[in-house]
Design brief:
alpha/beta, 8-stranded mixed sheet, 745 residues, 10 strands, globular, 56% helix, two-stranded antiparallel sheet
Length: 745
């Protein structure tokens, strides 16, 4: 045990919290990937020989599908007429639903490799995967990729044969967020045309491009760049959608001409993630998770439009304004795109894919559909079996995934039924059974991914509760009940030995299971804390005796209960911001009722102002989180803050207090300095309010921000940050720091 001193408590507290911060990664950020699976594919001739994949980085589904009202011409038009024409004449389409984190790397991994983000990649900044994984590109005969250096190398480096994936990339310096990003897409389209120009008849490239199971990947980063720089409702973002549509039309014409319109090319257009109105992404807001998916060409089902006025399946309020109600909307999960591409050109399913083949997108023979669904099910089942065997081999008290061991759900029985249905040409039954097997396997994978959660979260909870009890006992013993009564149990030695035995038991279990080294540290802390608590049982009895002697016993318990409720409410407020509105409304009522009647009579105006301001603030958390930029609101808000600050400075002589014990001259200087700081900070807000529209206008001109504006913004930022700390560090009488200003701030 560390010495019972304040420094000892601080040291153990810092170590404990540092170690337990890492527990987040061991619980929630463990890689879901497993290795050692056997690949599977449909052993029939696929409908397409080649696949062309377009990924428009950062494109929201609604922005490409919905009609656009051109304020200049006064007409309603389509931003992507070529792609929407494909949708109406020869494509299957829908919304691809992504998952958090809605970032470029995870989105591409989901669409091309078929699994949702390996969350351990958070340690790599979502840029490079820490674990090797399989992908459609790796399973292809050859892949040519064009686009950003942020995405392309990931799949090239992860290929089992580096020569299988060729990359054509611009430099990182070419990605400039201050200018129009459509030049990035122009580079991709121009480079693709040069690529076709090099594929002359008789060349090795020409021969290679005419092989089957080849993939062409075009990563179009301009839309995302313009979304970040100018917001997704800007002319730059919307214009980039037009630019991409024109570029894709050019490339499709090149493909058709190069291959002689042989009808053996499948095209897929999608996005890695969307973008919210603030020009950001990453979270689970629907604007970030809903992306477009349009597929056409060989093997893809064509639309069957309904009569005018009728609504096809799949539509809801989100797609109602698009004017596409006659055409069936076929939504998918983003990871389902990889099995779709795999099936179209007859590849092995990516080994780590958890996607489900969207059968509604296929226009093939029923037999091919059934065999593709079976290959998809076998590939997911392979992952389940590997994960099952790994856990069974290491866990001391192994519990299998129960639903997979029911007689009707055992994989062997389900596979037998699928094979019988295919042999009897009952393909619909076979497809339904495959989908059921896939769903069971995915649930089983999720079960094994979270297998250690109960143990780890129990240990972590015990650790935090132990820390609370351990530190509270120290505080009671040192500062609240500082008498000379014995504080430690006479059986402290026995308790310490028992703690070592418990830790040894955990260590043996972790060693047997091959657990990470940090697991030992997670178990050590709760054992240490609770052993320390048990060794101080006499102190606990003293605390209990002191509590029973209180005249009003309910008050401490009530305070604890209120604090627990407040903390729980704050946690719940992460999921529902209306909790804050309720809290402000309660503050508006509780404080005026809690003060004394005399204070209420003497300060009626103050209490009314308090209630009014609290109720006004409660409206803020009822407003939508996502909204467009509104420079006028920023200016009005800054002006109101500045005016209120000037008013406060004008009357500050009445409420600014000097340091305690200061002389007349020192008091006068201290009050003057406090008032000066208040005025300076207020003026800084005013300057920032003026700089807002000035810098905004320069940004709209798409030029570089003038050096004067840059220096002014940095000056305001640094001054507003540093001044409170400089002022709060001054020393008053007796050498004590004057923290009054910092506390008030």
């Amino acid at each position: 045990m560390l010495p019972a001193t304040r420094n000892g408590l601080l040291l153990i507290g810092v170590l404990f919290h540092l170690v337990y911060l890492l527990s987040i990664f061991d619980i929630y950020f463990r890689s879901p990937l497993v290795h050692g699976m056997t690949p599977h594919r449909a052993a029939l001739t696929p409908p397409a020989k080649r696949l062309v994949l377009f990924v428009a980085d950062g494109l929201r589904a609604d922005k490409i599908y919905e009609p656009y009202h051109n304020e200049t011409s006064g007409k309603t038009e389509e931003l992507a007429p070529f792609l929407l024409n494909k949708l109406r004449t020869e494509a299957s389409w829908g919304v691809s639903h992504t998952r958090v984190p809605t970032e470029s790397r995870p989105g591409h991994v989901a669409a091309i490799a078929g699994f949702y983000e390996d969350v351990s990649a958070v340690t790599k900044g979502w840029k490079m995967n820490p674990v090797e994984f399989d992908s459609v590109f790796n399973e292809s005969r050859h892949t040519w990729s064009f686009g950003s250096p942020d995405i392309l190398p990931m799949f090239a480096h992860g290929a089992s044969d580096r020569s299988r994936v060729d990359t054509y990339m611009y430099t990182s310096e070419f990605e400039d967020f201050s200018g129009n990003g459509d030049r990035l897409d122009t580079w991709v389209f121009d480079e693709a045309e040069k690529f076709f120009g090099r594929a002359t008849a008789g060349s090795a490239l020409h021969t290679q491009m005419h092989e089957d199971q080849v993939v062409f990947f075009f990563h179009l980063l301009g839309i995302d760049t313009n979304g970040h720089g100018f917001k997704p409702y800007s002319q730059e973002y919307l214009g980039n959608i037009r630019h991409v549509d024109r570029g894709i039309r050019r490339l499709v014409d090149h493909f058709e001409e190069f291959y002689g319109n042989d009808g053996q090319t499948a095209f897929v257009f999608t996005a890695d993630h969307g973008m919210n109105d603030r020009g950001a992404h990453g979270d689970g807001h629907p604007d970030n998770t809903r992306t477009p998916l349009i597929a056409w060409g060989a093997g893809v089902a064509k639309p069957a439009p309904l009569a005018a006025g009728q609504t096809a399946p799949g539509h809801d309020g989100f797609s109602q304004p698009w004017g596409l109600g006659r055409y069936e909307r076929k939504d998918v999960n983003q990871a389902d795109i990889a099995p779709l591409m795999t099936s179209l050109i007859g590849l092995n399913y990516p080994l780590n894919s958890v996607g489900t083949l969207p059968l509604a997108y296929l226009d093939t023979s029923r037999k091919y559909r059934a065999h593709s669904a079976l290959a998809n099910a076998l590939q997911v089942l392979e992952q389940y079996r590997v994960k099952h065997d790994q856990k069974q081999h290491t866990e001391m008290f192994f519990k299998p995934y129960a639903p997979m061991h029911q007689p009707t759900n055992m994989p062997e029985h389900m596979l037998a039924r699928i094979q019988q249905a295919i042999s009897a040409e009952k393909f619909d039954d076979a497809e339904a059974e495959c989908l059921q097997l896939i769903a069971l396997c995915l649930e089983g994978l999720r079960y094994f991914q979270r297998y250690d959660w109960l143990l780890l979260r129990s240990i972590v909870s015990a650790g935090y509760l132990g820390w609370i009890a351990y530190s509270l006992l120290y505080i009671f013993g040192e500062y609240i009940l500082p008498d000379s009564s014995p504080r430690r149990s006479q059986r402290s030695g026995t308790i310490a030995v028992l703690g070592l035995v418990v830790f040894a038991a955990f260590s043996a279990m972790f060693y047997r299971q091959g657990s990470p080294a940090m697991y030992y540290a997670y178990a050590a802390f709760p054992v240490y804390f609770w052993a320390g608590v048990l060794q101080q049982v006499p102190l606990v009895r003293q605390i209990a005796a002191s509590y029973t002697q209180l005249a009003v016993r309910w008050r401490p318990a009530a305070f604890v209960g209120v604090y627990v409720v407040i903390l729980e409410a704050l946690v719940y407020a992460y999921f529902d911001r209306r909790v804050y509105s309720a809290a402000f409304a309660l503050l508006a009522l509780v404080w005026p009722l809690a003060v004394s009647p005399r204070f209420r009579r003497e300060h009626t105006a103050l209490l009314g102002l308090w209630s009014g301001v609290c109720l006004l603030t409660s409206v803020f958390t009822l407003l939508p989180v996502e909204r467009n930029d509104h420079l006028g609101l920023v200016i009005v808000g800054g002006a109101l803050i500045t005016l209120s600050g000037v008013a406060a400075w004008h009357y500050s002589a009445a409420f600014t207090l000097p340091p305690p014990g200061a002389g007349v001259k020192e008091a006068r200087q201290a009050v003057a300095l406090d008032r000066l700081m208040l005025l300076v900070q207020t003026l800084l807000v005013g300057v920032a309010t003026v700089l807002g529209p000035l810098t905004s206008k320069e940004t709209e001109r798409r030029g570089h921000l003038p050096r004067l504006y840059q220096l002014s913004c940095w000056t305001v930022l640094v001054a507003a940050t540093v001044l409170p700390f400089v002022h709060g560090s001054r020393r008053g009488r007796g050498g004590a720091h004057d923290q009054h200003y910092l506390y008030r701030l």
